[in-house]
Specification:
Layout: H1 3-16, H2 23-56
Helix pairs in contact: 1-2
């Protein structure tokens, strides 16, 4: 499963839904979504690293 592809597709889908929103609000929303997306990516990386550690024990 390609989580990075899913993450980016989801981000794009939500971003495109903002096309009818006032530009300043859309820009802020996009910034917040990008930050949230990066946090989600980091969480997944750390989660998988922890799983690997547990498997090795």
């Amino acid at each position: 499963m390609d989580f990075e592809k899913i993450r980016l597709e989801s981000l794009q889908e939500v971003s495109s839904a903002l096309k009818d929103v006032e530009p300043g609000i859309a820009k802020l929303a996009n910034s917040m979504m990008n930050l949230s997306s990066k946090v989600t990516k980091l969480m997944l990386i750390k989660y998988h690293e922890e799983l690997k550690k547990q498997e090795q024990e």
